[in-house]
Amino acid sequence: MAKIPINKNYLFSVISILFIADRLLKLIAIEHLDYTINQSLALGIGTQDNTQAMIFSVFGLLISIIIIFQSRSTIGAKWLWIVMLLLLSGAFSNLFDRLAYGGVVDFIAIGSFPWFNLADVYITSALGLFSNVIFSKCKSFKKFTVKSEDATQRVDLFLSKKIVGYSRSACKRVIEAKGLMVNGVVQTQAQYKVRAGDTIVFDQSVISNDTLQLKPQNIELDIVYEDEHLLVVNKPSGMVVHPAAGNSQDTLMNAVMYRYSELQTVGDSIRSGLIHRLDKDTSGLVMISKTTEALWFYSKAFAERNIQKTYLMVVAGDATKNYRQKRKIVNYLGRNPQNRKKITVLADKKGKLAETDFYNLGVFQLDGKTCSLVKAIPKTGRTHQLRVQLSSLGLPILGDNIYGRGNKFARLMLHAWRLSFKLLDGKDIELQAKLPDIFTVANAKEIKTEADQLQKSNRSSK
Q1: What contacts 444, CB < 8 A, 6 or more positions away?
Q2: 307-462: what CATH class?
Q3: CATH topology (fold) of 146-203
Q4: Given CA atoms 185, 189, 195, 198 in this order, what sign does their dihedral have?
Q5: pLDDT tens, position by position, 311-320
Q6: Segment among 59-63, 270-274, 385-389, 455-459 with least mean pLDDT
Q7: Closest C-alpha among 309, 313, 311 to residue 430
Q8: Domain 210-304 top-level CATH class
Q9: How far apart are CA 26 and CA 20, in angstroms?
Q10: Cβ count near 272 (within 10 Å)
């Protein structure tokens, strides 16, 4: 544990000032005010023997100092020394009373009898402040035990998956600011690889997640479902989900906050109530919790893969050459060693398991090019999972500027179409978003499968 620097002259000066202030007030009380000599403990409780009370007081002081110093990594250096200055000043002055007067000089009246003094104010303020800081800090702590399936991944990535509203970069900033402990030791390296059985404690109060503010904006929302706990909206392509560097406004959460200001108290300040995210260029369903209870319930459901997501996409190429109707893709994904901004397929032990069921809904011609309409049900939730897996099959999603190898289109033809899950009350629900108008390019005569049914169901749901 890193040592906390101490300016001894400053420490001695402040304690002396507080000590002298208490001594002066007690002298004034003895000369001009009603006072009492309290030979017992605080508020007259316990023994009436001054010697025993002094022994108990010294013992209690030592115990308090030990507890406070054991908590120094939790409360921080600033609060540690404020608490210690108040505690030591009050304790030394009251101990001086016991040696000089045979008891503590009390002159602050409770009711009609003096039971208190300035030194007692110091002590109770110190203990109250310490308790408040500890309580506030504990509320900001997130504690995890690493399971075997999460082992070997970077700790910033691990935390970003576990803590709702915290991106990987936000976790990294907290880690670098000494807001992470692994097995009781401060860990400042975001690239630390977690191991099965590791105890991870993450302090969200170390720094603000973002210096950005979530400002309400009157932007139209396409609300698909709403109850007292949950809001589900259909996000358009091109809209960022929440504010981030370079996108401080015109996001989905700016629009949500305009209509639901009460969400400010749910989750992280920038991502208030947000349960999951979609890429900027992906359209479709996004879940937002309206209560803290719902945030944890649905976040856990996502983490445990109890929410089924169904996507629709238009890909460049004939999907029937890879599979006639259904194909399960299982591979391992990770950062591209040559370009860390891209995800790629890696060898088993070097990547994370990614599994998706793909369904071919039909083939059609678009501007003289062969395209396919594909449905996907991912079983895992890796970054860019669908885009990378389809690209690896030679079927890049139309409009994908990262993995599409120059396959340009008006937008990314990826749509988060359906969600199936249990509500907070235990009822099953299935929601689907309207297909964007641009998806009508796939409604060609050659397609006589589920695509037609999807279009009809969407028209009937309007």
Answers
A1: 362, 364, 365
A2: alpha beta
A3: 3.10.290
A4: positive
A5: 999 999 998 8
A6: 455-459
A7: 309
A8: alpha beta
A9: 10
A10: 24
Tens of pLDDT, residues 414-427: 999 999 999 999 99
Kindly state the tokens that stand for 18: 């507080």
Active site residues: 279
Which tokens in the block code for residue 355?
A: 């599994």
DSSP 8-state assignment for residue 244: B
The domains of the chain are located at 8-139, 146-203, 210-304, 307-462
Residue 130 has pLDDT above 90, yes or no: no
Distance CA 432, CA 375 (A): 13
CA proximity to 451, closest of 460, 442, 459: 442
Q: Are 93 and 85 in contact (CB under 8 A)?
A: no
Q: Where are the beta strands (DSSP E) in 236-338?
A: 283-289, 308-316, 326-336
Q: CA-CA distance, 312 to 435, in Å (whole number)?
A: 9
d(CA 215, CA 244): 12
d(CA 11, CA 13): 6
Does residue 444 carry a pLDDT above 50?
Answer: no
Fold match between domain 210-304 and domain 307-462: yes
